[in-house]
Write a structure and sequence with these properties.
Length: 267
């Protein structure tokens, strides 16, 4: 009997340790918010494509496809799209055509490159929209600062893919905004269970960050924080490389998006 009890206690201890190790390895926690922003779509003003794409999104939302993809990528029904099952029925049947979508490839997990191919939550949703409309999807990498130029030149039909539109451009009516469909913070994050459980413990810590202008601008929002941090490493591999370094113990914190934190907390 004593042997049996000892064995059961040992097994409980093993399971407990395994559970903690899994939690601390994959759990991620934001400890400082640097920038708050929202993601939206942008279309040329007075472009009929706006009505077809947004109607298709409403139908997909009503059918549950939007929530399905949101749960797959973010672990929750986080996307805010209007639901209307008959939205497309109110429009003239769309004729076959190409839809050129401009995407920010540094917006993991919404749009990024995987083995040279576009992938992400917004990429999958754009595919679903084109399937619903009978259109052919073509994707093009753009810089989010160039949304107006890309649209007005005709290089793209819609800017979509983890894009926070310029508030001034949107207010001036340079394009037609649809959304926002999700809120995103640019944050400093670390693993759950680390010694950095709040921003007061960031002093001297090693940080990895994407080598993008947006990431650098976010960090510059708090010059005092930059002075408090230790070594800062900018990685060309973007968000995924930053998290690989975090999990490997090569850095203490990462500069990332709150939506990326959601992704890594559910994968």
């Amino acid at each position: 009997m004593k042997r049996l009890i000892s064995l059961l206690l040992a097994l409980c201890l093993i399971f407990t340790l395994c559970g903690c190790r899994g939690k601390f390895r994959y759990g991620v926690n934001a400890v400082e918010v640097l920038v708050q922003q929202d993601y939206s779509l942008a279309f040329r003003n007075n472009d009929p494509l706006y009505f077809y794409v947004t109607a298709a999104l409403s139908v997909l939302a009503a059918e549950g496809r939007v929530d399905q993809l949101a749960n797959k990528w973010l672990g929750s029904s986080a996307l805010n799209y209007a639901k209307q099952a008959d939205a497309l029925e109110k429009l003239v049947s769309p004729e076959p055509q190409d839809l050129i979508v401009g995407m920010d490839i540094n917006a993991f997990p919404f749009s990024y490159l995987s083995n040279g191919e576009f992938w992400g939550l917004d990429v999958e949703l754009a595919m679903a929209v084109c399937e619903k409309l009978g259109w052919t999807l073509k994707m093009q990498a753009i810089e989010k600062e160039n949304v107006y130029v890309e649209l007005s030149s005709g290089n793209i039909d819609v800017a979509w893919g983890g894009i926070a539109l310029d508030p001034a451009e949107a207010a001036e009516g340079k394009y037609t905004q649809y959304g926002p469909y999700i809120h995103n913070d640019i944050v400093i994050a670390t693993r759950n269970g680390s010694a950095v459980w709040n921003k007061m413990r960031l002093g001297g810590r090693k940080m990895c960050m994407p080598s993008t202008p947006e990431a650098l601008q976010a960090l510059e929002q708090d010059p005092r924080l930059v002075k408090r941090l230790g070594q800062i490493t900018r990685l060309a591999g973007g968000t995924t490389e930053c998290f690989e370094n975090l999990y490997a113990g090569k850095c203490d914190v990462v500069l990332t998006d709150s939506t990326a934190v959601d992704y890594f907390n559910c994968h």
